[in-house]
Amino acid sequence: MTEGLPARDDGEALVLVMEAGIGAPEHDDERAVVLVETGPDGAQRMRRVVTRAELAAEVGRRERTGAEEGRPPRWVWADTSRWAPDLIAAGVRVERCHDLRLCHRILRASVLSATSELARAPRGPWDESPGTPAVTQGVVPLDLGIDPDPHGGAWAGDAPGAAGDALSELRRQLAAVDGSAEPGRLRLLLAAESAGALIAAEMHHDGLPWDVEEHDRLLTEALGPRPSGGRRPARLEELAAQVRTVLDRPDLNPDSQPELLRALRAAGVPVTSTRTAEIRAAGHPVSAPLLAYKKLARLYSANGWHWAQAWVREGRFRPEYVPGRVVTGRWASSGGGALQLPAAVRAAVRAEPGHRLVVADAAQLEPRVLAAMSGDAAMAAAGRSADLYQGLVDAGVVATRTEAKYAMLGAIYGATTGAGGALLPRLRQAFPAAMDVVERAARAGERGEVVATWLGRTSPADEVTAALRHAARAEGADAEQVRLARRRAQDHGRFTRNFVVQGTAAEWALCWMAALRRRLRALPGEPRLVFFLHDEVLVHTPTGIASRVAEAVVEAATEAGRLLFGSSPVEFPLDVAVVESYDEAA
DNA sequence: AGAGGTCGCGCC
DNA sequence: AGGGCGCGACCTCT
């Protein structure tokens, strides 16, 4: 089922942007940038050299002429996080790009491009991990084969054998895609990954609107006024005092896990760790004040005043988003824990005057993705209702919505025991095709094999699992070796089982955002994507077009489903809310 | 003093 | 429970 996937666009112009890597860093504006325009076959059409200071104007010009002809170019560069921020700061937001480093990483590992020259070549500069500070801030260590004099004219971009040469790399990538058994899937994946890199750069630039006063209000309400010096807030101090009294340890520091654990055990509290669940289960008089302390201490240290001072500037929280850092294809973030923004502080995410936040999240995304990728008609039918979990209840698969949720998540995460594990036979009976997809992925992982997402992103090779398995099967293997191999196989099987679903959900989400971004660009008033959380987006928009933005978000979800799964009957409904602050969304 | 490891908990 | 993360606090080692 590939009818939605893009065919090669032979009319698309690719414009490489490369740094010549010359000039002293203190004269950054004068550093040379080389632009090379090619067709999708990699044949060179035009090249020019500009200074870094001239780049944004040059890119903006080419982008406009492309847009007028209805064919914006695709900008090709080593690393979006190195080029896009300056362009965005200069007011230039390109329509599309191709991030060589992110795409290289996908093609290097993908089962769909395994026989390509790119995949079989030894590791080189393009295998360096993307998004690391050394890569994004330093000069990319590429041998571009460029004459160091930007006005000298001589240029050796076609010099063979230069492993770091961006044009050669682009050609290798295009060849890997064209030579793949599933070029449409890879093409979509690379385009989506690259669009994600653009979005990440734009979201960092735009930032999440953050109301520092509201944040201070809710912190003060929970913790007491902001303390001076290194002291704890009043409410935390009170709770600490209660804990000390109950445990009869006047000098206890409740922030120290070993100290706290010793004190709890000395007081006869039956815990083996300081985990919240154990403390709650103990039902001891210390439980209530200690649990309250832990909750507030977390808020204070992770998202308190100090956090705001470090990460919020001029009313915006600007974390760094790092596409491609999570093996499954999900984004990671760095700086301020953007992807763990707790519910307790979301009231501080407030639209600016005259604006609204459009908050949208995909309902039960992972189960729906599983239904689509497996072509499981029964599961698709259960997902016809807006709430897939309720759909399972209505179909008579399980008795309650809670059971449905546990069972589905258990199937996707690899539960073996407990409520989730117990319900698996019911799911297997009701949705054999869907369960077959995850169980085959699990078995492959247990054997130490790789698995791939719908679009071809492939799990990292795991030699350890395979080696342990081999050792355990060898003549004379002892029980300990067998136990170790089995344990490792089970762990890796759970990982690969989850990989195919989480990774495909990440692909859907990338397509969703890319489709949304394109729609937002066509709207007036500059509505901006300002937050992304795996299956959820926030758009900051002028109030007057908020309803059009909400429509665009829904249309983009439908488009994402079509792009990935063609005519699959699986729907991807959203919960959409137009609100003034994030906490108002359900 | 600083690096690195572990725990625990926030998000999906 | 089971998958994927980032981060802060504490602790240990160097």
N-to-C CA distance: 35 Å
Helix coverage percent: 40-55%
Large-scale geometry: globular
The count of helical stretches stands at 22
Q: What's the number of extended β-strand segments?
A: 14
Question: How many domains?
Answer: 4
Describe the structure.
This protein has 586 residues and is of the alpha+beta class. It is built from 22 helices and 14 strands. It folds into 4 domains: 14-206; 212-308, no CATH class; 317-364 and 507-584, Alpha-Beta Plaits, CATH 3.30.70; 368-503, DNA polymerase, domain 1, CATH 1.10.150. 49% of the residues lie in helices and 11% in strands. The strands form 4 sheets. The chain has a 5-stranded mixed β-sheet with strand order 3-2-1-4-5. Strands 12-13-11-14 form a 4-stranded antiparallel β-sheet. It has a 3-stranded antiparallel β-sheet with strand order 6-8-7. The radius of gyration is 27 Å and the shape is globular. The protein binds a DNA duplex (12 and 14 nucleotides) through helix 10, helix 12, strand 10, helix 17 and helix 18.
Features of the shown structure:
586 residues, DNA-binding, alpha+beta, single chain, Alpha-Beta Plaits, 4 domains, 5-stranded mixed sheet
